[in-house]
Each structure stands twice: as C-alpha cells, then as structure tokens.
Specification:
Layout (H helix, E strand, L loop, with lengths): L3 E5 L4 H12 L3 E6 L2 H14 L3 E5 L5 H15 L4 E4 L14 H29 L2 E6 L12 H21 L4 E7 L22 H16 L4 H13 L6 E3 L2 H12 L2 H11 L5
Parallel strand pairs: 1-2, 1-4, 2-3, 4-5, 5-6, 6-7
C-alpha cells in the first residue's frame, strides 16, 4: 500500500516531476502551489496516471489556508507519512542594493513557509510516532554565494531549522532530511538574474557572475534527473540527513568543508568568474 505524501510547490519543475513519479509508484499525493493553472494541469495529469491525489491552489504565506489544507488531507487520508517542503523563490542582488521589503518576502516564503507546513503536520505524525520531514534547501545553504546573500540566508536558515528540529522530533519517531540541489536546468535563476543599475560598483562582477551561472545551468541536471534523486530520499526508510542531487554538488561541499578558507574562496571567485 502506498504512502500519503504532502508536497508544497508542485505546480512545476522538480516538485511536479517528483509528484508524478511518486504517483506512478502508487503513492497518494496531497499538495498545493500558488500557480493555479499548474495545479489544475497537474490534477489532470494525475487523473491519467490513476494516482490518488488532493491538490489545490494555495499561497504558502496563507496560514489559515494551510490549516484548512491540513484538515482536508487528514479527513481524506487519516494520516500523512511524509511532508516535502519544496516551495521557494530566488533573490539576486548585491546586498548593499537589496530591496529589504522583497528580501522579507523571500525569507517569509522560503523559511517561514517551510516552518508552517511542517508545524501543521507534526502533531498527527508525532501521535503516530512515524513520518518524515524533508526540506528542499540548496547548496548555498552551506556554501555562501556572492550576490545571493538574501537567498543564501534563507537556505542557511532552512538548514539550521532542520538540524535543530531533528533533536526535538526524532524521539517521537520522526525522521528529518535535507535535500541540497545546486544548479538545476530550469528557469529559476533566469527569473531573478537582473543586472545592478548603471553606475553600480557591483555591476561588472554581477554581469560576469550571471553569464557564468547561465553557462553552468546549460549542463546542469534536468528537473527529471533531480526529481529521481528526490524520490529516492522521499521513499527511503532511513533517508540521510544531507542529500545532494549530483556528484558536483557533493564535491563542492567537500571542498567547502575541508579546504582552508583562503583556498576555498579563491576557487569560488575563479569558478564564478568574479575575481577582481
């Protein structure tokens, strides 16, 4: 018998592919996305697959909406086995020039959004003494990147949230896991890559960073490739705490963890073509 899996941000990209793969395996999928059209088309696709599902359009910042979603899921299925927090937005800007109101929105969606969906389902999972809480973080949740200070802060926060939460919920039989993709071949980065204003002291290096990032994305893992890795984490009985999508991500994390800071920084600025 399949499990009941909650996925946020499943209207497109990795979240959507993950949802359909899990449905094809016989799991029941409950989830939402702010993209109503994406949710509607995914529901049609789920109908063709024949997978049991409960999908709805919903903004992750709608606290009352999340409560209603949780209640609907538990009424229909009586339980939830896994919660995958996949919703998130990017943020690109030199920190000095960052719009802090937009930064607040990024932190609200990426951090508090994940906290809200986990908080909603923990009580029922704790009562059953089983379940998995999985957060989609990022490689920049442990490796800081220039011009992505706000986004990096949100992903560092997710990593810290999950590491702390783990101590609280593991005694109740809940497992905590983090997935850390780097570049994935989607339009995610393109939507946020905006050059700083003319005259900005950061403009030239930011331009080189964007060009390099766009170049790397062309050979990055596809959303389907990433989804296959995510599915393995979701369906594992004992998923690892940290999970990368591909070898390059694991290698970069190794460099970050073991090389001296000066050498690590030199590699990063050269790798992203932003040496002064």
């Amino acid at each position: 018998m399949g499990e009941v899996i909650v996925i946020t941000g499943l209207g497109d990209g990795m979240g959507r592919h993950t949802a359909t793969m899990l449905a094809e395996m016989g799991h029941s999928i409950a989830g939402f996305d702010v993209d109503a059209k994406g949710v509607a088309s995914l529901s049609e696709e789920m109908d063709k697959i024949g997978g049991e599902h409960l999908l709805m359009p919903l903004d992750i910042s709608d606290r009352k909406g999340i409560t209603k979603f949780r209640d609907a899921v538990l009424r229909k299925y009586g339980k939830v086995d896994t919660v995958l927090s996949n919703v998130g937005i990017g943020f690109f800007s030199p920190f000095e020039e960052a719009d802090l109101e937009k930064a607040l929105k990024c932190l609200e969606i990426n951090v508090i959004g994940a906290a809200a969906i986990f908080q909603a389902f923990i009580p029922s999972m704790r009562d059953r003494k089983q379940g998995k809480l999985i957060a989609m973080s990022s490689l920049v949740g442990r490796i800081p990147f220039p011009f992505e200070s706000i986004y990096t802060a949100s992903k560092f926060a997710i990593t810290g949230l999950m590491l702390s939460l783990r101590y609280e919920v593991e005694p109740f039989g809940l497992k905590v896991s983090i997935i850390e993709p780097a570049q994935v071949s989607t339009t995610f980065a393109a939507k946020i890559h905006v050059l700083p204003r003319d005259g900005s002291p950061y403009r030239e290096r930011a331009r080189r960073f964007i060009e390099r990032d766009d170049e790397l994305i062309k050979t990055a893992p596809t959303p389907v490739f990433a989804a296959r890795r995510i599915v393995k984490v979701v369906t594992a009985k004992k998923p690892a705490l940290f999970n990368q999508i591909d070898f390059n991500s694991s290698f970069l994390l190794w460099i970050n963890n073991f090389l001296p800071t000066r050498i690590r920084d030199m590699i990063l600025v050269n790798y992203m073509h932003i040496k002064v």
